[in-house]
Amino acid sequence: MTVRVLVCDDQALIRTGFATIIDSQPDLEVVGECGDGRAAVELAGRLRPDVVVMDVRMPVLDGIGATRLLAGAGVPDPVKVLVVTTFNLDEYVYEALRAGASGFLLKDAPPSQLLQGIRTVASGAALLAPEVTRQLVGRFAARIRPVEEVAETQLAPRELEVLKLIAEGLSNSEIAAALVISQETVKTYVSRILTKLDLRDRVQAVVYAYRRGLVT
Fold first, then answer.
1. 1, 94, 100, 211: which has the fewest Cβ within 10 Å?
2. Response regulatory domain location, by residue (predicted)?
3. Which domains are delineated in the chain?
C-alpha cells in the first residue's frame, strides 16, 4: 500500500525538498503541501493522509497546536504526525510529543532517515531516537513539572524499571543489557506497560514518565 503524506512547513524550499524526496519512493506519495498549521488541519481533514510531516514554528497556527488538533487526546480519528525540528527549537518538541505526535526527526537528518521515519510512523510504531531523547527530553526535564507525586501502583516493579529506562532514552537492546534480560522480554514489558497505562506508543510512555516525576 502507498503511504499518503501531507507536508507542512512554512519554508517553501524545505517543503519542496521534502516532497521531492518522498515522491521519489514507490511506496510513498505526497498528497498535499501547506505552509501553516491551520491549513494542515484543514487539508488533513479533507485529504486524510496517513502521515503529516509537521514543522514546529509556523504562522497562523504552530505545529504544536496543529498536532493537538490532529492527534491530541479526545480526537476521534487521529492522524499520525511526524514532527521535524532543529536543535535550537528543541524546547518545543516535548510539547509536540505531549500534544500527540508519533515521533520527531531533526531537519538536518539524511533523506533516508526521513523516509524511514515516515514508514515507521505510518506502520503505527513510534519514532523516538534514543540518542536524541537523551539530549532533548533530558535537557528540558527541569521544566517539566510532574502532575502528581504518587507511586505507580499499576505497574509491577520490573515494569516500572523498564518505563524509567525508556524515558531515559534507552533502546530495547540497551534496556536488555542493563537489566540482563533478552530483547524479547523487554518487548513484552513494553507492551504490558502501554496496555496497563492505556498509552498509544513509546513516545507517550516517555511523556507519561516525565509528567509523573518518574524521571528527573
1. 1
2. 4-122
3. 3-138 (3.40.50.2300), 157-212 (1.10.10.10)
Angle in degrees, CA 118, 116, 43, rounded to 5: 15
Helix (H) or strand (E) holding 159: helix 157-167
Q: How confident is the model at residue 125 (pLDDT cuts 50, 70, 90)?
A: low
Nine cell digits for residue 75: 480526537
Q: What's the alpha-carbon Rg for the chain, to the nearest Å?
A: 17
pTM of the model: 0.70
Alpha helices in 10-91, H assignment, sequence order: 12-23, 37-47, 63-71
Strands 51-54, 80-85: parallel, antiparallel or unpaired by DSSP? parallel
* Chain Cα centroid distance, residue 185: 24
User: Which is more confident, 95 or 41?
Assistant: 41
How far is Cα 177 from Cα 38, in angstroms, rounded to an integer?
44
Q: Are 209 and 166 in contact (CB under 8 A)?
A: yes
- The Cα 205–Cα 197 span in angstroms is 9
What nine digits make up the cell of 39? 491549513
pLDDT digits (tens, 9 = 90+) for 49-99: 999 999 988 899 999 899 999 988 788 888 999 988 775 555 666 777 778
Is residue 146 a contact partner of residue 212, using CB atoms and an 8 Å limit?
yes
Q: What is the pLDDT of residues 206-215, one digit of tens each?
A: 778 877 877 7
Q: Classify 172 as helix, strand or coil.
A: helix
Alpha carbon separation from 6 to 35, 139, 186 (Å, rounded): 11, 30, 34
